[in-house]
Amino acid sequence: MIPSHSRYGHWRWILTIVGLILYVVDIGTDIGVGVQFYANYQLVWSGLTLLFVLVGLVVTQIFSYAWYSDDMNNPMVNPEGNRTTSGMSKAGLVSFHLFGMGLFTRYYHLLNKGFQVVFSKVPVDMTDDRRDYRIHLKLFGLATDLSMLKLFETFLESVPQLLLQLYIILGHSHRSILQYISVACSFVNIAWALVDYRRCLRRSLPHVREMPSGLPTGAYLLYKLFTITTHILSYSLLLLVSSYSLAAMALVWLLATFWAHYLHTHFCSSRGLEWLYRGIIGLILSFTFFNAKGQNTKRDMILYYVFYSLVNFTAPFILTWLRPELKTAEYFLPVTCLIYVGTLLGLFSLVLYYIFLHPRGQEREADEVDGQHFEPDTMHRIRSFLQP
Prior knowledge:
This protein has 388 residues and is an all-alpha fold. It has twelve helices and two strands, in the order H-H-E-E-H-H-H-H-H-H-H-H-H-H. It has helices at 10-39, 43-73, 90-98, 102-118, 129-172, 177-204, 215-241, 245-262, 271-285, 298-322, 332-357, 379-382, and strands at 84-85, 88-89. Strands 1-2 form a two-stranded antiparallel ribbon. Helix 6 (177-204) crosses helix 7. The longest helix has 44 residues, at 129-172.
C-alpha cells in the first residue's frame, strides 16, 4: 500500500478547489474596485488597480504556455513525440492562453485527473504500488506547477494591489466596503499561495522531507504573513512621505533582480524568459526572502532580514520627521504599532520555525514504494523552483 503521506487524497483535491475559489474571488474583487474607481472618475486609481490585475494575468499566461510547450518538446515528458499535451494541441494551448485561461486550464486538468484517481471506484492493484505511487507523485507535480504560477500571480497582483489600496486608504481617505473586501481577499490569497506552494513543492520532491502540518505549517505561515504585511505597511508609510519613495523601491527591485542574475539562475528555456523570471524574483525579494538557487542561504537570509528590520523600524520615524503633520492622523499610531509588533512576531516565528520546526535533512527514507531514484517527468523544472 502507498503511505498516506504519499497519496494525493480527497483533502488535497478539495483544497485545490478552495484555491481556485480564492483566486477567482481575489481577482473579481480587485476588478470590482477598479470599476468602482472608474465610476467615481478616479481614473488614475482605476488604471493602476486594473493594470496590476492585467500584469499578473499576462505573466502567468506566458509562463504557463512556456511550460506546456517545454513539456511537449521534452522527450522525457513526451517520449512518443505527440503534438498534444494534456489533451490539447499547440493551437489550442495558444488560444486558451491568449484568452487568459492558462491557470483555469491547469486547474481543470489537475482537478480532472485528481478526481479520476481520488474518487476512482476501480480496485487498487495491490501488486503495482510503484505505478500507483508514480501517478500520485505526478499529480503533486501538476499541483506544484500550478502553485508556482499562483505564487507569481500573488506577487505580481495581490501584493502590489494590497500596497496600492493601503496607500489610497491611508493617504487619500478613500474608503469603501469593496476596498476593504479586496484588501482582506489579498491577505488571504497571499497566505494561501505561500503555504500551498511550500507544501506542494516539498511534497513533489522525493529527496526532500515534506513539510509537516500543524505547528510547523502554522509557524511558517505566521512568519511569512507578519514579515510581508509589515513590509507592505512600511512601504505604504514611505509612499505617504513622498512619491520619490517609488524610486527607492524600484532601486531595491533592481538590486534584487541583479542579485538573481549574479546567482546565474537557470529556470527557463530561453534567455528572454529567464530575464523575466529574474525580474519576478527581484519583485518577490522586495517583500520577502526566498532561496532563488536552492543553496545554503543562512548568511543571505540574515542580511536580508537585517535590511528588512531597518526599513520597518525607521519608516514611522521618517514619516514623523519629514511629514510631522501626519503624526496626528488617526491611522498613524495603529499602523506603527502593527509594524513594530508584527515585525517582532514575524522574526520570532522565523527563528522558531527554522531552529525547531524545519524538517531536518533532505533525503526521505527510501522504501519499496518510493524506490531509490524515481522522480516525476517535470522534475527538471520543479528542481529549479524557488526554495521557500
